[in-house]
Amino acid sequence: MSLAPRAVLVHRRTEYEELLARHGTHGQAAFFLSSRGRSIDEVARRHEDTRQALREVAAAVPLTWRSTRVERADLDRFLFAPEDVVVVVGQDGLVANTAKYLAGQPVVGIDTAPGRNPGVLVRHRHADAAALLRTATAAGGKAEELTMVEAVADDTQRLIALNEIYLGPSGHQTARYRLGDDGENAPAEAQASSGVLVGTGTGATGWLRSLWLERGSALPLPAPCDARLLWFVREAWPSPATGTSRVAGELARGQGLRLTVESDRIVVFGDGMESDALELTWGQSVRLGIAERSLRLVI
């Protein structure tokens, strides 16, 4: 007998909750903000909007379903099940934070601050939650398959991300490594830089786009569903021992970029989740390419 679907509501602490955790009381938080020229009223209003959205989304879950909630800070310890329908209530970045822990489960993005969030991934309002949950479980329900990027180390460690993967020193200073196409005979270039960024079409609205604009790159940015990645080296340093001839490129499905570490330590993390990173040491290598899995975003 198959299990009934489970709605997993993903959310994060609001700014108001973080202020209370730091300062203890509403009054102390209000004083702290006022000393910096801000009012707590707007922060408290956004907090209540988020709580109301969570309540309405929870109420929209069918009575025959199971449901649970998980906070962003607990995502790396939460076990998603195949029958889950994931409802992200919050910002676009929260969808990206969640995506790396999924394996094909449908995702519904609920925007709690329309006009404040870009709405690239959280495209819907909480009033639409009931209809979206039905779509997520219906045969032929409309969804987009968003391309993801993965990093696979030579010791089998693996990391998947929706927007981008960053490789470099944890302090964002200078790392030494060799960079080249994946393949036994592919020549690699010794480089020193503040890191390498490999991004998807979804990431083309964020960090990847900023590098693309900074470089004035002629490479066309990929769309979220395109099976194509772009990569850029950040601040490559030319010297007698290091080069700068390979600082940007694109990867199609089946192609890979390989980085071999020549520093004491390099971290690899995706979508800003530096607390959930791979750590590589001297001599280790990692391959970057399009992930086999994608994010199924309900539209």
UniProtKB/TrEMBL annotation:
InterPro entries, per the entry: ATP-NAD_kinase_N, ATP-NAD_kinase_PpnK-typ_C, NAD/diacylglycerol_kinase_sf
Coiled coil: none
Protein name in the entry: NAD kinase
